[in-house]
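Entry 14. Ran structure prediction on the chain below.
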Amino acid sequence: MSGGGSRKALGRGLGALLPPTPGTGGPAAPTTEEGGAPRSGPRTPATLPVEALAPDPDQPRRHFDEAALDELARSIRSKGIVQPIVVTKDPDAPGTYRIVAGERRWRAARRAGLSEVPVVLRDADPDERLELALVENLQRVDLGPVEEARAYQELLRRLAISQEELARRLGRDRSTIANALRLLKLPDKVLDMLEDGRLSAGHARALLVAPDDATRIELARKAARGKWSVRALERKAREAAAAERAKSHEPADPDAVIVADLERRLSRALQTAVRVRRRRGNPKAGVLEIAYDDLDVLDRILDQLLTPGRGNP
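Output, structure tokens:
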């Protein structure tokens, strides 16, 4: 996902979070209610104790780069927080606030040793908090592809709207949302590799061409280990899909159908590629091949196979 001035503005964006101050065009600063709670108003930003704020459990962003947080903490220690953190009252815990936008700044402020942070209070229900948090993260290009896709999925579920309507509300192309959601069709093991940076979003989309999850996992591991380009992975995925189609057009062989079914069931149960090689001259005999990438994977497979009641497809 690339930034730049040519990219379309995302929905209401941060303007929805920080309404303009009359006569300035800048964000409105809050004043303070009785009891110390901040409220919207055209004065100096209010402050709250760092410990009175907590992340929103619906925040789409789950991964924070430690080195980047350290860098931001050094900047905050030197210059302070330039942009206030947007919060809403926590209905379940009086006197505390959930972060709508600015969790990364809050984490860095804690790391920098600040006792208080500037805030702007916004009333927002859970669905609106999720939408606004997604908008801010998208504008800052802070979300990974899996986080972004899961946030879209959750908004579609909560708001019960179409992809087209969600795209309109977020100011994005419908195809962008559709392509992001397609990533969630991949098995969890591939999504984990995408989240921790071993695969790119381009690699993940290439894997969608592969015929089944076991093949996707196998190709993903090989691509990460061999540092394949996206084009090389696309070629391997297409070859695997073509081989699967060719097998489906072969003359019917009852034994081959049984063997193929066993391969699929074992691959699914063991979460790795399993192949049955039939022996020439004796089609009733053969060799069972179970792929593994490292000793940890081998240990897991053996545990499934040797532990009673586990590993049965």
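Confidence is low (pLDDT under 50) at residues 1-44. Will compare against last week's run tomorrow.
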